[in-house]
């Protein structure tokens, strides 16, 4: 019960904040000893006048108000008062227990050397007081032994409290450090997620907008001569725009602060490559698609990487390959890796770039996550080639 009350007193917020200043707490802790000392006024137990009794008790108890604020100075002052008490032959008073309180405070402080010095001084005072007030060697031996035991017990209690406080401080510092590290890791994770979403948005927007631009150019060219083809191009534009909006809504949903991103369709994977090929063919680009080897069971991240690489490479073909370009996509399953190769016979090295694209950088970042590699560049006979190899060592054959 007492421990619970003490814990509440130390930790309550904000009711007792004003009461937790050190002088007020020290007054509260010294109050029982002060009340006990005042009981000496009720009789003639001590051979000293009442005014002097009050003066000596005040000299021993008053410094306790600043016991934790200036522990060494308060202990030294109390020891000086006790020494003066022995010199003028004033009998031992109840307030002499304040020496033990001062010893406990110094021993519980941050310096163990000062605690040992305070203990030695207190033991010296026990010897001095015993020699002064106790007659007979037999009684002096018991007085010295009893006083030394009290001093050792109080010193050990203060040392234990010092160790406990140091442990609690280390635990608090560790908790604060872990909290800071957790916040830093959270910020890193957020930055990584933003970078991932930025790459996804780049792939989605670049691909779909490129398809829309190609179809819009075709529709404007054929609107007078071939209304059917123009209508088909406009339908492709509408379908591609809806797809782009749906994908962007799905990816941006994770940024909602209320934590309710709703229900979204899964990320595209290898199974969606056929749909991507059909979409590119619908935009007017001749395209072949082939699969070699035994299909493997791939993680969603690897499947998304394969899909995005194909999407980015075909988008670049649409943008820079030229009007007569044709492309080929080859997906090869090996024993320890999956390889996707996208080639075209377009302009290749002659194609102009505005320098604003991040497609190749995004490809390399995606593949580097899984320890793979990407080769991209113009082909010797014309055109452009992108080859990505992604290890699947931990994957299992279907």
Automatic annotation (TrEMBL):
Q: State which residue ranges cross the membrane.
A: 73-92, 112-130, 142-161
Describe the location of the Histidine kinase/HSP90-like ATPase domain by residue ranges. Answer: 301-394
The UniProt entry, under CDD domains, shows: HATPase_UhpB-NarQ-NarX-like
**What protein name does the entry list?**
histidine kinase
Q: Which SMART domains match?
A: HATPase_c (SM00387)
**GO molecular function of the protein, one example?**
kinase activity
Upper classification of the source organism reads: Bacteria, Bacillati, Actinomycetota, Actinomycetes, Streptosporangiales
Swiss-Prot/TrEMBL keywords: ATP-binding, Kinase, Membrane, Nucleotide-binding, Phosphoprotein, Transferase, Transmembrane, Transmembrane helix, Two-component regulatory system
Pfam families cross-referenced by the UniProt entry:
DUF7134, HATPase_c, HisKA_3
Top-level taxon: Bacteria
Its EC number is 2.7.13.3
Q: Which catalysed reactions does the entry list for this protein?
A: ATP + protein L-histidine = ADP + protein N-phospho-L-histidine
